[in-house]
From TrEMBL:
Superkingdom as given in the UniProt entry: Bacteria
Protein name, UniProt field: Addiction module protein
Organism: Sulfobacillus harzensis
InterPro entries assigned to the protein according to its UniProt record, in alphabetical order: CHP02574_addiction_mod
Length: 75
């Protein structure tokens, strides 16, 4: 079963069961060693970097993001 197929099936669970499963999965991440945790963060950073390089439109400056937020909040 692929990740996407698994996600589709898990979304069919009742909200309480999904919450219980989410909590269990989050708790399992706390059991990672420091080395494992660092490796996973490095892989995620590399993936995000590659995504940004593949499509430059995904990146936005913090200045633009904060300006948009202020406009939405009416300030």
């Amino acid at each position: 079963m692929t990740h996407d197929e698994l996600e589709v099936e898990l979304r069919k669970l009742d909200p309480r069961e999904r919450a219980r499963l989410a909590a269990a999965l989050l708790n399992s991440l706390e059991e990672l060693s420091e080395d494992e945790n660092a490796r996973l963060w490095a892989e995620e950073a590399e993936r995000r970097h590659d995504d940004l390089l593949a499509d430059q439109t995904l990146g936005r400056s913090a200045t633009d993001v904060f300006r948009e937020i202020r406009e939405r909040l009416g300030g």
